[in-house]
Specification:
heterodimer; A: 111 residues; mainly beta; 6-stranded mixed sheet; 5-stranded antiparallel sheet; 0% helix; B: 113 residues; 7-stranded mixed sheet; 4-stranded antiparallel sheet; globular
Chain lengths: 111, 113
Amino acid sequence: EDKVVQSPLSLVVHEGDTVTLNCSYEVTNFRSLLWYKQEKKAPTFLFMLTSSGIEKKSGRLSSILDKKELFSILNITATQTGDSAIYLCAVSTSGTYKYIFGTGTRLKVLA
Amino acid sequence: NAGVTQTPKFQVLKTGQSMTLQCAQDMNHEYMSWYRQDPGMGLRLIHYSVGAGITDQGEVPNGYNVSRSTTEDFPLRLLSAAPSQTSVYFCASSYAGGRETQYFGPGTRLLVL
């Protein structure tokens, strides 16, 4: 059975800290891994990763994929209170049209 | 572009009632899907569609029906609501399932008493 596991489940940090969120997966015929940020409502897209070792970066956020060890990390540097959200990881597989989501990591950044 | 829209935003049902959650997108996306989100469970796929006239089941399809008569619309029907269907429902769309990111609607919060 395909599965995606995120850790930690929740995290509380102070502004300025750096955090690393983890996503591991066990799927048949991996195609891509996606990161989303969910605040009050709908998830919003952060990154899509398809190749190992290539870092994607957007401002203070960055992500990398390791297809050999079957995991990805999402790094947030110099955290701000606006980074408080649930961060979701999803994996898609070749031959299907499904995205499998992890349970998410709830991040709270204190001022 | 309005993106992905969902109605209603919030609904209260009694056990046994039926209703339809509406989802529409104006981006000409082929792929549309419905998820439910429960505390501690992440997003779970209910049904999805790869184009007009084509639908398939996801991880948790029981108690739900879908149809896709047009590219734009993908309604989700609850046949006989149960308290276990209390959840937040998200509709999403993309150009091609699995190859691109999905765009999510704002969600419908459903409470079944």
